[in-house]
């Protein structure tokens, strides 16, 4: 039975996972570590399917397999749960809760249903409630036989050292330009060469950012963001153009893509900036990161959000003397 093709740009991580599965003493907890947009979510699900697959059998359906448990943000209320069930966009709770951990732990009192292995995915572990982290730690310290944990983390420093110390780290690397081009060609085959080149330049090695760039047609938004970073926006003219380009009622996915793009362009500015400007860039990036975590949960006004993004970019703009 053939195995799935390696993930573009993450072949080393995939081979490490396959080697671990084939070994006699596989570690029980794994930390999938790397920046957002590198494919950790898809990797975790494919890894879980490979883990529970019976020898010689087909890859299982992740959504329905009884031995694959995924802990992620739940809908924020019953109305949002209905939207999820209908396949509509929905708001989520801010954290993964202790009740979700306890429900998972209750399942661990029984043996795996179909085979000898069970996978627990926590996506992302960064967003566990404090009490949930402490509860999870007990399972990591005394894991049931045949149970393996995959903790997705964008910021491993946010996890308790006691959690990190019990996990084997699987690091996800930024992709090379040719690998990014291959991802875009695969997932958005209609994208032209110019759109692909712009997406690759803006992505800073993140396939998630590159795909968002192409799928949400962020070329003009990227151009305006770079103008703000290069020359500031004292008269708010560029911020107004940014809001107009975003549109009056953009879908939430487009708003999230713009947030990720803004974070990416700030990171690209960091290496060549002066020390004083680096501090401004880091501060603006931190605020954008907070907004990125809140935007899927709260119903932000799209116009105000894009103006906030523009304001943060303006706060980190190149000094006028240097810009000249």
UniProtKB/TrEMBL annotation:
Pfam families per UniProt: DNA_pol3_delta2
Highest rank taxon of the organism: Bacteria
SUPFAM superfamilies xref list: P-loop containing nucleoside triphosphate hydrolases
UniProt-listed PANTHER family: DNA POLYMERASE III SUBUNIT DELTA, REPLICATION FACTOR C / DNA POLYMERASE III GAMMA-TAU SUBUNIT
Protein name, per record: DNA polymerase III subunit delta
Annotated organism of origin: Novosphingobium album (ex Hu et al. 2023)
Lineage: Bacteria, Pseudomonadati, Pseudomonadota, Alphaproteobacteria, Sphingomonadales
């Amino acid at each position: 039975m053939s195995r799935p093709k390696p993930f573009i740009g993450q072949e080393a991580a995939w081979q490490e996972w396959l080697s671990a599965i084939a070994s006699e003493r596989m570690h029980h907890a794994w930390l999938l570590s790397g920046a957002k947009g590198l494919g950790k979510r898809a990797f975790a699900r494919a890894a879980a399917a490979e883990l529970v697959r019976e020898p010689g059998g087909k890859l299982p359906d992740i959504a329905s397999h009884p031995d694959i448990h995924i802990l992620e943000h739940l809908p924020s209320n019953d109305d949002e749960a209905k939207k999820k069930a209908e396949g509509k966009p929905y708001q989520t709770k801010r954290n993964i809760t202790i009740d979700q951990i306890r429900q998972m732990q209750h399942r661990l009192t029984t043996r795996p249903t179909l085979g000898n292995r069970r996978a627990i995915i926590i996506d992302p572990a960064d967003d566990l409630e404090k009490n949930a982290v402490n509860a999870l730690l007990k399972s990591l310290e005394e894991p049931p036989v045949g149970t393996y944990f995959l903790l997705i983390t964008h910021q491993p420093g946010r996890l308790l050292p006691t959690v990190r110390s019990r996990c084997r780290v699987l690091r996800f690397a930024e992709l090379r330009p040719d690998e990014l081009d291959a991802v875009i060609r695969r997932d958005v085959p209609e994208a032209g060469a110019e759109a692909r080149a712009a997406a690759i330049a803006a992505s800073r090695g993140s396939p998630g950012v590159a795909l968002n760039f192409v799928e949400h047609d962020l070329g003009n938004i990227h151009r305006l963001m770079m103008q703000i970073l290069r020359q500031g926006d004292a008269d708010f003219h560029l911020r107004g153009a940014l809001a107009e380009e975003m549109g009056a009622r953009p879908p939430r996915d487009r708003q999230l893509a713009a947030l990720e793009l803004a974070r990416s362009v700030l990171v690209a500015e960091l290496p060549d900036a002066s020390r004083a400007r680096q501090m401004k860039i880091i501060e603006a990036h931190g605020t954008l990161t907070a907004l990125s975590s809140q935007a899927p949960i709260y119903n932000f006004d799209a116009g105000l959000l894009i103006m906030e993004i523009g304001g943060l970019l303006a706060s980190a703009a190149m000094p006028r003397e240097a810009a000249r």
